[in-house]
Design a protein that fits this description.
single chain; Rossmann fold; alpha/beta; 6-stranded mixed sheet; binds guanosine-5'-monophosphate; two-stranded antiparallel ribbon
Length: 191
């Protein structure tokens, strides 16, 4: 997606050799126009898969999941929670995902009350690195007896194996922008 590629080139920063910082428009400050366009782009890619619901993981997947769900006709959005809170009561679907940015194993949970059995579920997240977060979400959909319509990520880091991991499980993966590498803090983004 041209606008996202430009935003990454103009406002993104590489940290070390594997972290992409896009706090200016996606992970801290939100560029609302851009996030709406991302939602429209995901909707165009996945409308024919007829999702019933959009699933993401807190916190930074929520904005793009919301605009995608709105562009698909105001579908519900469910976001998996990373911490055990007293708010999540009753029965839950649970999986685990090693957090690339935080270096810890996150247990992700979705209350069974909000993910009814047998739905068609579109997974949206901000980044794809090793595929752990998306794999954990797919596992939760499987536990609910649902079907994964596909996986949409705003930014794919092509130098990490996430796409390979997810595609080898049979999932369709759509990335709106692809970062090929980091060269002394400068992000190398595919056209
Ligand atoms: P994965 O689970 O595919 O290894 O990593 C994806 C998750 O980790 C995303 O939910 C995202 O929040 C976070 N993440 C992974 N790499 C990056 C990165 O380079 N920058 C940012 N901002 N988040 C990342």
């Amino acid at each position: 997606m041209k606008e996202l590629v430009e935003a990454i080139r103009n406002q993104g920063v590489g940290i070390g050799d594997d972290i992409v910082k896009v706090d200016m428009f996606l992970n801290h400050r939100l560029d609302t126009e851009l996030v709406v366009k991302m939602g429209e782009a995901f909707a165009a890619e996945f409308a024919d898969t007829k999702p019933d619901l959009v699933l993401t993981v807190e916190a930074s997947g929520i904005a793009a999941a919301l605009t995608t769900a709105m562009a698909l006709g105001n579908l519900p959005v469910v976001f998996a929670k990373k911490s055990q809170t007293r708010n999540v009561t009753g029965e839950v679907y649970q999986s685990s995902a090693f957090s690339f940015t935080h270096g810890v194993e996150n247990h992700i949970r979705v209350s069974k009350a909000y993910l009814p059995q047998g739905l068609r579920v579109l997974i949206i997240d901000d980044f794809l690195a090793n595929g752990a977060a998306a794999s954990g979400l797919c596992d939760i959909v499987r536990q609910s007896g649902g079907t994964v319509c596909g996986i949409g990520v705003c930014v794919e880091k092509c130098f990490q194996p996430g796409r390979h991991v997810l595609e080898s499980m049979g999932y369709k993966v759509v990335a709106l922008a692809q970062v090929e590498g980091i060269d002394q803090g400068r992000l190398v983004v595919k056209d």
